[in-house]
Amino acid sequence: MSVAKKEYKRITVKSLIEMKEHGEKISMLTAYDYSMAKIVDSAGIDVILVGDSASNVMAGHETTLPITLDQMIYHASSVIRGVKRALVTVDLPFGSYQSDPKEALRSAIRIMKESGAHAIKLEGGKEIKESVKKILNAGIPVMGHLGLTPQSIYKFGSYTVRAKQEEEAAKLKEDAIFLEKMGCFAIVLEKIPAQLASEVAESVSIPIIGIGAGNGVDGQVLVLHDLLGMTYEFSPRFLRRYMNLYEDMSNAISQYVDDVKDGDFPNDSEQY
Q1: Are 234 and 251 members of one domain?
Q2: What does UniProt list as catalytic (predicted)?
């Protein structure tokens, strides 16, 4: 059954809470530059995540770990300039918040001041409580991230589904409730069993955004380059490709190369 949508001129943290209360699903995508952000925002997305996945899709790294705070601020600043409606949330990169709550606060403040972003996201539960507390006390909205946390890939050893065992599932539930009580406005759940994700969504009043976490949550997030079919080698079960841009772009560029080589471009109408 479809749910009547409230029209929001600007999405805020409060807007997302209202969407959950009214049963309206929340749409979220990544973006890392001005041009893409402008398109995504104008298409009606609710939340844009300037993800540390930029380390993979923009810089070509194997993991999210190498990207720096300065680089995240650069990407976030580019995105903000293209956005009029969506809430823009920025990942705190690896090493900027895990060990020192004061450093976490400084990192979050830099992102907010230098990029103009609206919120930050960070991975983990009770183990990062002091960092979360300091950032929230400074008035900065925080989105949590539980389940598969890519910044901990070397701890996990793989990108397989998390929280399949009872002990890990129980901890994830506890962490979600803990993050809500701390004051986080939403939580991303990545690559966990659908039933568990649904139980978490029902146990908290803040929105739960899933990626590989089934349809029983309050919204969904994907990496834009995956959705558009630009990253052809990445095919997890949870990914739905809405285009095949890799093939379309390759064909267009090949055609351009041929036209230049053949002297067909530019033609008479394309000259001054």
Answers
A1: no
A2: 190
Q: Is 91 annotated among the ligand-binding residues? A: yes
Domain identity same for 204 and 158: yes
3-class secondary structure, 108 = helix
Residue 166 among the catalytic residues: no
272 residues of the chain, pLDDT tens digit each: 556 678 899 999 999 999 999 999 999 999 999 999 999 999 999 999 999 999 999 999 999 999 999 999 999 999 999 999 999 999 999 999 998 999 999 999 999 999 999 999 999 999 999 999 999 999 999 999 999 988 876 666 556 788 889 999 999 999 999 999 999 999 999 999 999 999 999 999 999 999 999 999 999 999 999 999 999 888 889 999 999 999 999 999 999 999 999 999 999 999 99
Which listed residue (103, 167, 190, 199) is catalytic? 190
> What values do phi and psi take at 163, rounded to 5?
60, 35
Is 123 annotated as a binding-site member?
yes
**Is the domain of 127 the same as that of 258?**
no
Q: How crowded is residue 135: how many other Cβ atoms within 10 Å of its Cβ?
A: 28
Threshold 0.70, pTM exceeds: yes
The residues with which 182 forms a beta bridge, in sequence order, are none
Give how far Cα 122 sits from Cα of 129, 150, 179, Å. 11, 11, 11
247: annotated binding-site residue? no
Is 259 annotated as contributing to ligand binding? Answer: no
Same domain assignment for residues 45 and 167: yes
In a domain, 131, yes or no: yes
Within this chain, do residues 198 and 262 fall inside the same structural domain, yes or no? Answer: no
